């Protein structure tokens, strides 16, 4: 059990800096997810916490101790890798016991810890198998078991579910969540999948190009993104962005719409962007809503339908509607934007603060 | 429609059988050419002198069959010593090549450091330069080190000779190893040496077998360096020992062929042991492209 603090952490490879000063505090027992597009530095940051990458600047502090020069095994961490990284020549038991055996622990203690971890993950029947005799999900479970056995203060996960198929990923996601509820250990988890981030995290850290864009609970990021990047990254399908023109009286117009009142503070500048999530757009009869457009594509998933509506922009506006909507491609539909669900971004991509916080966020 | 399809299918099948037959004909021809000298050596080692010269290609008959060659070789006492010398030199050199080669390859593929690429090129440069070009210098060096007529001199030379290819093949292969597994071992608290011995070595076993066979054969068969560096009676190797049966005026062919037949044995045994791993090693992308 330990907290984790990053103070102005930087990473340079030769002359290129890839992490530009990250400050972050992870509380004891918290589940924090690093999310961002590939190349944003999330894995590098995790490897720096683990001690696998040298820290070029700043401090990594675990449980109050500065860890920059401490070897990975002495940091009280355990790591689960994307490619499972099981030792192919050892059976499941051997894999799980390896670190403890190496540390010279007592045999009985090793056995007890391995059996307990195997019990938590349902691995008992597989203890004598070799990694190549296991399925992908079982391998990942062994990799997690190996981490549990070490009884770490912090678990580090590096995209652990990326190699699994979709169904298994959902199942393992739930298992990891239950594991966290059971062990109550600090966990840091890296993923590029925002759904994983939303479902697992106590707090999400959104990274881009080696900088933190925003830190917050999943709902904070969803309802109050700090900028356009976070707004577009969190949520699926992604948020619609429309060019908006201020009318000088605190309202904006989009294309040929009537002026819209967006409930944000201090909106300034003239090159504004209006954002609305697909699930918040409401369908109306043509001519009755905020805007009118022609349906290009209707993706029917059964329970819900994604309508791609052409408004004359390069990208169509996506509407997440009920599965029972009857609109077909070629038909004209009206779109209503509920004011409370609107986001307004300035020319730099910064979001203007909403006047009221969302009801679910304290 | 139907008939067209079946004729086309039949033609396709015939064509495939034809191609396969062609491929196998070429392979068989090559195999015959490659094995022929070995078979001749072994066959004639079981004949007497007359048999060898009258009908070199014939099987041993009741008249020509003789094991006098083997008797000569085994009774001449020294031959077992030469055999032992060859074994010692080959095994120790192989061990050193594999150990140092794998360690160097591990360093080159695993660690980022200045001049990494340059060092890699330097280490495998020896592939292009035949070590025999340096014979005079090597001899001088060995004389200065008082290593002439010792097995150590041979072991040193063969290790140097085998390292470039070993490093080249092993580096290429080690680059394909998962980085996660080594990082995982680091998190588990293994030292860099133990990562190499306990995690990396088991993973590269098939390629090690390949490199072992490739490196062993030229060492076992070499005549040049034993002749120059270790020609004393106590340090002769098999290939050099055979020379004692080749005189200026007479050659004891039965003995020569018998000793060569015995000398082939270890290579055959090694190949039989490693053939499976050898093939998987060659096809495991040891050398890309």
From TrEMBL, chain A:
Single GO cellular component term: ATP-binding cassette (ABC) transporter complex, substrate-binding subunit-containing
Entry keyword annotation includes Disulfide bond: no
Domain ABC transporter: 4-234
Keyword Transport on entry: yes
Gene3D superfamilies: 2.40.50.100, Nucleic acid-binding proteins (2.40.50.140), P-loop containing nucleotide triphosphate hydrolases (3.40.50.300)
GO molecular function, one term: ATP hydrolysis activity
Top-level EC class: hydrolase
Listed InterPro entries: AAA+_ATPase (IPR003593), ABC_transporter-like_ATP-bd (IPR003439), ABC_transporter-like_CS (IPR017871), ABC_transpr_MalK-like (IPR015855), ABC_transpr_MalK/UgpC-like (IPR047641), Mo/tungstate-bd_C_term_dom (IPR008995), NA-bd_OB-fold (IPR012340), P-loop_NTPase (IPR027417)
EC identifiers of the protein: 3.6.3.19
Keyword terms: ATP-binding, Hydrolase, Nucleotide-binding, Transport
Annotated family: Belongs to the ABC transporter superfamily.
PANTHER family: MALTODEXTRIN IMPORT ATP-BINDING PROTEIN MSMX (PTHR43875), MALTOSE_MALTODEXTRIN IMPORT ATP-BINDING PROTEIN MALK (PTHR43875:SF3)
Protein known as: Maltose/maltodextrin import ATP-binding protein MalK
Source organism of this protein record: Palleronia marisminoris
Higher taxonomy: Bacteria, Pseudomonadati, Pseudomonadota, Alphaproteobacteria, Rhodobacterales
Gene: malK_4
From TrEMBL, chain B:
Cross-referenced PROSITE patterns: ABC_TM1 (PS50928)
A Gene Ontology biological process term: transmembrane transport
Record family assignment: Belongs to the binding-protein-dependent transport system permease family.
Membrane-spanning residues: 21-43, 80-105, 117-139, 151-174, 195-220, 253-274
Residue ranges of every copy of the ABC transmembrane type-1 domain listed in the record: 83-274
Entries under SUPFAM superfamilies matching the protein: MetI-like
Transcription regulation recorded as keyword: no
Location of the protein in the cell: Cell inner membrane; Cell membrane
Protein name: sn-glycerol-3-phosphate transport system permease protein UgpE
Broad class of the protein's primary localization: membrane
Keywords: Cell inner membrane, Cell membrane, Membrane, Transmembrane, Transmembrane helix, Transport
Keyword Transmembrane found: yes
């Amino acid at each position: 059990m330990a907290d984790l603090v990053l103070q102005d952490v930087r990473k340079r490879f030769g002359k290129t800096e890839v992490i530009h000063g990250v400050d972050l505090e992870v509380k004891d027992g918290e589940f924090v997810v690093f999310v961002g597009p590939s190349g944003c530095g999330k894995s590098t940051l995790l490897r720096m916490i683990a001690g696998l990458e040298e820290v070029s600047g700043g401090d990594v502090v675990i449980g109050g101790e500065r860890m920059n020069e401490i070897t990975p095994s002495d940091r009280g961490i355990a790591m689960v890798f994307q490619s499972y990284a099981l030792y192919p020549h050892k059976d499941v038991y051997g894999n799980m016991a390896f670190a403890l055996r190496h540390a010279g622990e007592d045999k009985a203690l090793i056995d007890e810890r391995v059996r307990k971890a195997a019990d938590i993950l349902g691995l008992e029947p597989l203890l004598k198998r070799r990694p190549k005799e296991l399925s992908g999900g079982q391998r990942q479970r062994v990799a997690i078991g190996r981490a549990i056995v070490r009884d770490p203060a912090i678990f580090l996960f590096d995209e652990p579910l990326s190699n699994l198929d979709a169904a298994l990923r959902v199942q393992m996601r739930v298992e990891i969540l239950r594991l966290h509820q059971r062990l109550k250990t600090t966990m840091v988890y890296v993923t590029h999948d925002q759904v994983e981030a939303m479902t697992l995290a106590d707090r999400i850290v959104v990274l881009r190009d080696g900088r933190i864009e925003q830190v917050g609970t999943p709902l904070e990021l969803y309802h109050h993104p700090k900028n356009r990047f976070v707004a577009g990254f969190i949520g699926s399908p992604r948020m619609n962005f429309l060019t908006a023109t201020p009318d000088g009286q605190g309202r904006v117009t989009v294309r040929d719409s009537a002026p819209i009142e967006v409930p944000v503070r201090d909106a300034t500048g003239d090159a504004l962007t209006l954002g609305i999530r697909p699930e918040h757009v409401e369908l109306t009869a043509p001519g009755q809503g905020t805007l009118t457009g022609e349906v290009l594509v209707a993706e029917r998933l059964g329970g819900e339908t994604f309508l791609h509506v052409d408004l004359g922009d390069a990208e169509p506006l996506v509407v997440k509607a009920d599965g029972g909507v009857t609109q077909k491609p070629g038909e004209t539909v009206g779109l209503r934007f509920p004011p409370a669900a609107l986001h307004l971004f300035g020319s730099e991509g910064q979001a203007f603060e909403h006047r009221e916080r969302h009801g679910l966020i304290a | 429609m139907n008939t067209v399809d079946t004729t086309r299918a039949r033609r396709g099948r015939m064509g495939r059988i034809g191609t396969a037959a062609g491929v196998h004909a070429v392979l068989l021809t090559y195999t015959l050419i490659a094995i022929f000298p070995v078979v001749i050596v072994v066959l004639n080692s079981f004949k007497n002198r007359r048999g060898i010269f009258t009908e070199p290609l014939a099987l041993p008959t009741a008249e020509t069959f003789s094991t006098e060659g083997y008797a000569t070789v085994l009774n001449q006492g020294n031959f077992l010593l030469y055999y032992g010398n060859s074994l010692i030199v080959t095994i120790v050199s192989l061990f050193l090549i594999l150990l140092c080669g794998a360690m160097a390859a591990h360093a080159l593929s695993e660690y980022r450091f200045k001049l990494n690429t340059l060092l890699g090129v330097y280490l495998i440069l020896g592939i292009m330069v035949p070590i025999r070009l340096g014979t005079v210098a090597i001899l001088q060096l060995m004389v200065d080190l008082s290593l002439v007529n010792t097995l150590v001199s041979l072991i040193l030379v063969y290790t140097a000779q085998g390292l470039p290819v070993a490093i080249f093949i092993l580096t290429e292969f080690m680059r394909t190893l998962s980085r996660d597994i080594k990082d995982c071992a680091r998190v588990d608290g293994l030292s860099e040496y133990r990562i190499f011995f306990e995690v990396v070595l088991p993973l590269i076993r098939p390629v090690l077998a390949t490199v072992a066979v490739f490196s062993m054969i030229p060492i076992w068969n070499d005549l040049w360096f034993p002749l120059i560096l270790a020609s004393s009676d106590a340090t002769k190797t098999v290939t050099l020992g055979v020379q004692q049966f080749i005189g200026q005026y007479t050659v004891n062919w039965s003995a020569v062929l018998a000793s060569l037949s015995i000398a082939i044995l270890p290579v055959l045994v090694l190949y039989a042991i490693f053939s499976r791993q050898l093939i998987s090693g060659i096809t495991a992308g040891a050398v890309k492209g």
